[in-house]
Automatic annotation (TrEMBL):
Organism: Flaviramulus multivorans
Catalytic activity annotation: Hydrolysis of terminal, non-reducing beta-D-glucosyl residues with release of beta-D-glucose
Name of encoding gene: bglX
InterPro entries: Cellulose_Degrad_GH3, Fn3-like, GH, Glyco_hydro_3_C, Glyco_hydro_3_C_sf, Glyco_hydro_3_N, Glyco_hydro_3_N_sf, Ig-like_fold
Location of the Fibronectin type III-like domain: 693-762
Protein name: beta-glucosidase
Keywords: Glycosidase, Hydrolase, Signal
NCBIfam families given in the database record: PRK15098.1
Superkingdom of origin: Bacteria
């Protein structure tokens, strides 16, 4: 054990002794939830708390950023200020400091200078991998494979922890239905159930079952709440939703996260119905901490406490501090509000010491759970750092996850899979040999230009006699963010009109048997602050596409993007389209696995693809309305100039084989509210290749005390079915799948008629009916 730890032990012992004489002050105003608490940890938490002075308590509620990697307007007061505060033990956490050496150095400041030596907790946005980069979360969600999603999060955790960090600000579990919103790339898409199960898988992956294990890190359920419903898809914008939408659509993934034991929550920038989430007491205190009995730590989003001034909800930072702490925001990320104002607010009796203690306990609890009090440097091991990051083993998993995240949208002429011994193949497009874009936004320590490009992936698998031509054709019009550049200050240019490269691209297209055309978006077109009013191919990509298609009909579009795009022209013309998102470090290899048939694609869309941007927000589980759209009533609840339905619906994705669904059977036609129905369905692989299918179960409650969606995903199973084989897949329908947040403000099953569908996408037509009785 190191000298510093030996020094620290007497402090803890003293704390425990003191605890036995001076018990922790009990909150007299409110009863906070205390379920699932570990008594031993609570005893230690209380004993440390009893030693703390007010300034040290407030310090635990302060989180500073390292000055690099700022993800918002920099409010930094400079390094000297931070250093002084660290020495005084007036900082609880740091974000954006990475590497064992830097973390050790920063932790040392606190351990050597501060009075109580309470270790810092270090956080970082590890959204889809640390250095080994996995597909962007939206893409990974297209795998509908909870095991590999968990595995990718656990590898991310292992690499993050090996770098000395203990906390990621992920998963984002904001249901998001608007393709214009740049942050749609960060979550699991438009559906509540899918966000719920994927969010839980990611939390389990990050946290494992023991936070103190050196390979696990604390996760963070964000952004609480409603951020994905930003009006018109403009980032940070107002959210206008009612109470029932909040409970039925937005909160379930968060409730499941709390239940799964996620260590932290982050609140959100937006206001809902006039109240900024950071200052929302109902959300944070009543629902999260009280009703859900959740004992973790709520961190504000970057500067969001101070931003309540701009919202017009707080007069100044002092007012904002009072509102935020009172509402249950425990830790101040980069607003510099708590450190400046909490002490005065306590003295003026505007914030009670019990409220401060409750917040501080949440911070201390997490630090004990992570094992930081036992050894503040336990995550700091240079050997482990060298051995555990960006390993071949991790890259192999990244390739596996990436190939499973690819969605085959169209394959009309069975152009795919391509044989490896073609005479010639043209790889064309601005993304064809891009080694950076596949890393996507929020790539943590993913190294600039480190991904396997499509061209590299293709070259590594084709026959040695196959000629591979390459032409870029056109430039993606947004310059790539270079290492060290702050992407938030990066210019966006959409006005590139240079078509001079198209000619050469057309020439190689003419010579090739098949063209792989890699087009889509730049990595930084989606992500925070990257909302767009148009979702088609920017720049002159469409011109390139049409010019190529004119001379060669065997075109496969390899789409790389972070949001659902308007690809209508391509869908109407080009024979094959492969949705490849931003697939991470192993992108090119994974795409080649699918293109050449080494892997039969099994991904399904976690978001609807529209015919055009005017349909946004677009999602499958809409309400019927009083005038439902139908072939007879085409003017009802639709558009006169565009279809109402999606171009490619939620849950959709093709395979190189075909599946047939039949014989949906229910073991009962009527159940009590707490009863159970067993459903079985036959799925046959009617093609000639083995393949995996995501079998999806949708339910509709026909009449409710509140209007109900036309259908809702309630379960799914991913099954491998051999060519020619038939499998029976079983589901259980129970109250969990039938209940909703009713007009009684409770989760209830209401009696009445229900429809159930099973199929390979949200437009499934194989249907059953049943009735729930009192
Ligand atoms: C702002 C983002 O909204 C949030 O998701 C992120 O975790 C923080 N910045 C920290 O980088």
């Amino acid at each position: 054990m190191s000298k510093k730890n030996l020094l620290f032990i007497p402090i803890i012992l003293l704390a425990i002794v003191l605890f036995s004489v001076k018990n922790h002050v009990v909150d007299s105003e409110k009863v906070y939830a205390t379920s699932n608490l570990d008594a031993k940890i609570e005893e230690k938490v209380d004993s440390v708390l009893a030693l703390m002075h007010l300034n040290e308590k407030i310090g635990q509620l302060v989180q500073y950023s390292g000055k690099w990697n700022a993800t918002g307007p920099s409010t930094s007061k400079g390094d000297q200020h931070k250093l002084d505060k660290l020495k005084k033990g007036e900082v609880g956490s740091m974000l954006n400091i990475t590497s064992v050496a830097s973390i050790k150095e920063t932790q040392k400041i606190v351990m050597e200078h501060s009075r109580l030596k309470i270790p810092l907790i270090f956080g970082y946005d590890v959204i889809h991998g640390y250095k080994t980069i996995f597909p962007i979360p939206l893409g990974e969600s297209a795998s509908w494979d909870l095991d590999i999603i968990k595995q990718s999060a656990s590898i991310a955790a292992k690499e993050t922890a090996a770098s000395g960090l203990q906390w990621t600000f992920a998963p984002m579990i904001d249901v998001s239905r608007d393709a214009r919103w740049g942050r749609i790339m960060e979550g699991a898409g438009e559906d509540t159930y899918l966000n719920t199960v994927i969010g839980v898988a990611r939390i389990h992956g990050f946290q494992g079952d023991d936070l103190s294990h050196p390979n696990t890190i604390a996760a963070c359920a964000k952004h609480f709440a409603g951020y994905g419903f930003a009006e018109a898809g403009r980032d940070y914008n107002t959210v206008n939703i009612g109470e029932y939408e909040l409970h039925n659509t937005i909160l379930p993934p968060f409730k499941a996260a709390a239940k799964a034991g996620v260590a932290t929550f982050m609140n959100s920038f937006n206001d809902i119905d006039g109240i900024p989430s950071t200052g929302n007491k109902v959300l944070q205190r009543d629902i999260l901490k009280q009703n859900w009995s959740w004992n973790g730590l709520v961190v504000s989003d970057w500067g969001s406490i101070g931003e309540m001034i701009a919202h017009g909800y707080a007069e100044d930072k002092k007012h904002a501090t009072q509102i935020a702490l009172d509402a249950g925001s425990d830790m101040d990320m980069e607003s510099y509000a708590y450190e400046a104002n909490l002490e005065a607010l306590v003295r003026e009796n505007k914030i009670s010491i019990e409220q401060i203690d409750d917040a501080v306990k949440r911070v201390l609890r997490l630090k004990f759970e992570l094992g930081l009090f036992d050894d503040p440097y336990k995550y700091c091991n240079e050997e482990r750092e060298k051995a555990n990051i960006y390993t071949d083993e991790h890259l192999a998993v990244a390739r596996d996850v990436a190939k499973k995240s690819i969605v085959l949208l169209k394959n009309e002429t069975n152009l795919l899979p391509i044989t490896k011994n073609l005479k010639s193949i043209a790889v064309i497009g601005p993304l064809a040999d891009d080694k950076d874009a596949p890393l996507g936004n929020w790539r943590a320590k993913g190294e600039y230009n480190s991904a396997v490009s499509l061209l590299e992936g293709v070259k590594s698998v084709v026959d040695k006699n196959t000629k591979v031509f390459y032409e870029k054709g056109v430039e993606l019009t947004i310059p790539t963010v270079k290492p060290g550049e702050n992407q938030f200050l990066h210019p966006l240019k959409f006005n590139n009109t240079d078509v001079s490269g198209i000619k050469a691209a057309v020439e190689v297209a003419k010579k090739a048997e098949v063209v792989l055309l890699a087009i889509g978006e730049n990595a930084y077109q989606t992500g925070e602050g990257r909302s767009q009013s148009e979702i088609g191919f920017f720049g002159v990509q469409q011109k390139l596409l049409e010019a190529i298609y004119k001379v060669n009909k065997n075109v496969v579009i390899v789409l790389m993007n972070g949001r659902p795009m308007d690809i209508s022209w391509a869908a109407n013309n080009v024979p094959s389209i492969l949705e490849c998102w931003f697939l991470g470090s192993e992108s090119g290899n994974a795409i080649a696995d699918v293109l050449f048939g080494d892997y039969n694609p099994s991904g399904k869309l976690p978001v609807s693809f529209p015919h055009n941007v005017g349909q946004e927000p677009l999602y499958y589980n809409q309400k019927n309305t009083g005038r439902p759209f139908s072939p007879k009533h085409v003017t009802y609840s639709g558009y006169t100039d565009t279809p109402k339905s999606a171009l490619y619906p939620f849950g959709f994705g093709l395979s190189y084989t075909t599946f047939e669904y039949k014989n949906l059977e229910l073991d009962k036609s009527e159940i009590l509210k707490d009863g159970e129905i067993k459903l079985s369905v036959e799925i046959s692989n009617t093609g000639t290749r083995d393949g995996e299918e995501v079998v999806q179960l949708y339910i509709r409650d026909l009449v409710g005390s509140l209007t109900r969606p036309i259908k809702e995903l309630k379960d799914f199973k991913k099954v491998m079915i051999k060519a020619g084989e038939t499998k029976i897949v079983n589901f259980t329908i129970n109250s969990e799948k039938l209940q909703f947040y009713t007009v009684n403000k409770k989760w209830e099953v209401e009696p009445g008629d229900f429809n159930v569908w099973v199929g390979g996408n949200s437009e499934a037509s194989l249907k059953g009916v049943f009735r729930v009785v009192e």
